[in-house]
Amino acid sequence: MIPIAKDVALLPLLGTMVNAYLVGDVLIDAGTRHSARTLQRLLHGHPLSAHALTHAHPDHQGSSHTICTARQVPLWASAIEAAAMEAGTLRHVMPRNALVCAEDLVLTGPAHPVQRHLRAGDDVHGFEVLEMPGHAPGHLCFWRAQDRLLIAGDVLVNVRMPTPLPGLGEPPAVFTLDPERNREAIRRLAALDPLTVLFGHGPPLRNPDALHALIARFPSPGAQTSRLPMDL
Predict the structure, then answer these.
(1) Metallo-beta-lactamase domain location, by residue (predicted)?
(2) C or N terminus of the chain, fewer CB within 10 Å?
(3) In this structure, is residue 232 part of a structural domain?
């Protein structure tokens, strides 16, 4: 467990290729279904009151059922992602292609009831919930204005997959339901001017200029262009 800021710690589940976060006593995301043992080890000795999802993709919800059951805590998610989580199938919150189907088979965790639907403006241990659809239809981010700390989930990534090398960019299009709408979400997040950005994939970013530089390279909304070279 790596301290990041007051009441915020990074839980690296596969180096920083797959991340979860502990915000006070709330766990945000839970890796794949193979992450449970690592997650339980990292959380040992730490109180837990709830578990929240940025979105219900296999590398974020995979160990949610195990953790919520073992620690007897409620699961929180947006209404759209909650429906997928409770149905036990993620097909409506992910693109349908061969790579996604393979990931679904190998990494997706069991269904689990969602006790609270998170909405824009809700508070999660001092973080404001932001609705940022695009990568997934009910994707949430978490924003703490007092120190301008952003938990971005997969709206952005800071790794050049499939390598572990850091690199800020958009999430891979193959895993993103609506790439253009996700770019809108990135623009909205950049407007917050965060000092620290935490990702589902990749190390923390503490360079505010990097996010604005990424935005500057985007084409105008609706323009027909190829994806940026830095995209994965």
Answers:
(1) 17-201
(2) N
(3) no
Tell me how many domains the chain contains.
1
Residue 89 token pair? 């199938």
pTM of the model: 0.91
Angle between helices 179-191 and 208-216 (to 10 degrees): 140
Cα 160 off chain centre by: 16
- Evaluate whether 78 touches 37 at the Cβ level (below 8 Å): no
Contact 141, 186 (CB under 8 A): no
In sequence order, what E strands does 66-151 have?
A: 75-77, 116-117, 123-124, 127-131, 140-144, 149-151
Pairing of strands 116-117, 75-77: parallel
Residue 225 lies in a domain: no
**pLDDT tens per residue, range 164-216:** 889 999 999 888 999 999 999 999 999 999 999 999 999 999 998 999 999 99
Other beta carbons within 10 angstroms of residue 112's beta carbon come to 22
- Residue-number span of the structural domain to which 143 is assigned: 2-216
pLDDT in tens, 6-20: 999 999 998 889 999
Fill in the amino acid letter for 85: M
Residue 190's alpha-carbon distances to 17, 98, 146, 214, in angstroms, are 22, 32, 16, 9
In a domain, 75, yes or no: yes
- Judge residue 97's burial from the number of C-beta atoms within 10 Å of its C-beta, 0-12 exposed, 13-18 middle, 19 or more buried: exposed
